[in-house]
Predict the structure.
Amino acid sequence: MPEDIVLEHLRAVRNDIADLKNEMRGGFKDMRSRLASIEQHGAADAADAARQSAEIDELRDRIERLESRLELRDA
């Protein structure tokens, strides 16, 4: 009889561990998905910043050409 109680407790512990493992796997899957999303947003932000920087440089060049044509440059 005491052996049955020990086996019953061991089975319960095994089931609890299996439940925890499944729960952790699901949590890690969710975390990986969220991390991938954050990485994608970071990459998109970096690409936007690079594009904006190029546009600003282009506008700066255009302004300099206009100032030069209109002789508005400070010496």
